[in-house]
């Protein structure tokens, strides 16, 4: 059976999505949190196999200038099958027409995203809720004097 792709939050089981993010592993994101962020994202993809959610991702976008791909998750049983590539490509395609498409990757996964044309930004900066935790996880570099 082929995958079923949905681009709407209608009928999404937010508990199932939360479990997907824990399994992927992309952290512990509550169902309420995921409902808020996916509902506020211009583009979203939910991928089902036999009615089971196996992958999801979203892009925040303003419709013209900037799109930001984030929260791309694939069940471990489906990682390495090409589904993640299809998901990223779908979000890139949905975001086409924006002047820039941005993402930040799990440290070490940059080569995966280079295949889609993403290049390292030299001036990207971020403010995180728990910056020291993100430094430890490799998302942020500590400022040097």
UniProtKB/TrEMBL annotation:
Pfam families: Acetyltransf_7 (PF13508). Residues 1-145 form the N-acetyltransferase domain. Gene3D superfamilies: 3.40.630.30. SUPFAM superfamilies: Acyl-CoA N-acyltransferases (Nat) (SSF55729). This is GNAT family N-acetyltransferase.
